Predict the 3D structure of the following.
Amino acid sequence: MRVPNSMEFECPVKIHCGDRALNHIPFELRAIGSAKPLVIGDEAATRENRMAAVLNACRDADMTMGVVEDVPLADMTDSLLQLAAIYRDKDCDAIVAVGQETFMDLAKALNLLLSTGADTLAPLADGQTVPRTLNPLAVIPAASADGFEASGYLHFEGHTLRSVHLMPQLLFLDPRATGRPDDEAMVATALNALTNGVEAYFGVDTNPIKAIYARPATLLATEALCVLAGRGTRAADLAMTVTHAAALGGCALGGDRLSTTHCLAQAIAATGKASEAQAKGVLLSYVLEQRVLEGAMNVDVLLSLAGGNDRFARTPEHQRGPAAIYFIRSLINQLFETSDGKIGRTLQDIGLTRSALAAIAKSACADDTHENPEVFETILTHAWEGRPFGCMT
Amino acid sequence: MELHYRDVSPGRSYPQRAYLSINLWFMGRAIQAASRVDDRVRREIRGLPPEFTFALGILPDGPYLVVRKQGKDSARYIGRRIDAQPVDLALSFKHLEAGFLTFTFRENTSVATARDRLVVDGEVGYACSVVRILDIVQIYLLPKPIARMAVKRYPHWPLGDKLINRSRIYWRTLIGY
């Protein structure tokens, strides 16, 4: 990896991982000055006993906690305002969020709202900068994650905010809090983590410290995907592996701008034809191949990153690039077979029509990116047809 | 839909707390006894500053064992309250469960530290001395199969010395001398 002339890296997230990690919550909250946290959880957290696990883990902590369970996500603004009122009325001083995906966005939005002292998020959506210091936020994500839980991204009511200050201060990964995800959910989480890891590693603003997070995120995600695709033996802690990968991927992403894969996947998800994770799974190899075509990345490294050092070492030097792309693509193909077609191999598989590609490319360009619609459309066309660029044969 | 708020005071685990209180009380008195019986413990205590006081216990509110250096190379068990006197070194488990893991000998002190369950507040060099003292005391107090789990490395000491010292430490611990 090339060391850039100037770089900046900030990751304020302290990760507690493993057996009894949840028991550290009271100590860590006290360490950041909290005496009465507000523990909030979504309906899935209550249903899967994750909320109960968190409260049980805080026994003997000598700390009173405010608890709001079953927070509905149908009307996010209403839930946000109610939670903010409760937080202020009950003199809480930190947020502990037990949930996944959209619920974590709600927790970040709540923290932002309370930290700014505002009544709505409208000024921030209109361009007001995110304050440098926010209230303490601890997140306990489940294995069904979108990969943005630990990141500095906040998607709320059609707006996207990004700042490294939006990242949570504490993140707890405990087998008791991963939930009981099905294979489909774990594949989605692993695909999100894989994309975050690879894009953080090969992004234009990458640096050696970011790579420290990106490498294990990618390796853990591919390990999990291989198992889910039927390669190798399934370990008991597969849910923890994908949760860990998602957390590291989120840290690697931080508050940096989104990559081509993210932008295109979000535009596809906005059409309602497929989830963002599915779109990322299809697109990732084509985006990387297109980047190789432009000479913008060292594709050999991708093999060690995604396939591991053993695979890298036993592949002849001149074959490492094609082998890396083939590795990702064959993984997606196998997932297509094991999931009975629920994980698409091409954009055609996930139900997009060819005529929709131009509009998707244009919509993706509206996001925070420097690419042009023609490049995006070329990538989408190849991904729709399942036709490699052919630059590496 | 209206959200429902409730205050939760998570409660106390009385059996675990009682077990740890007894264990720490016994361990504190055993350190005092070992400092009068074993040369290795005396050597470690000799390296500590005069009147050095250390504590080992559970956050946030105990129980603790508090031991103070007395004279040149012996120690005295002060009690179970950490806030009754200033301490130079506090080794605290972050939560009751972590202390319970260590004192039921499923996880030794080194592993607890590696897993970020133990907080050291004070000079690290002295903390290492205290951990070595604790290891020696555990080797004397516990049968070999259990002591193997409780310490990082089980040493090869002459069997005669070990058995004689063990019985002396047990008697002194029970009578508090």
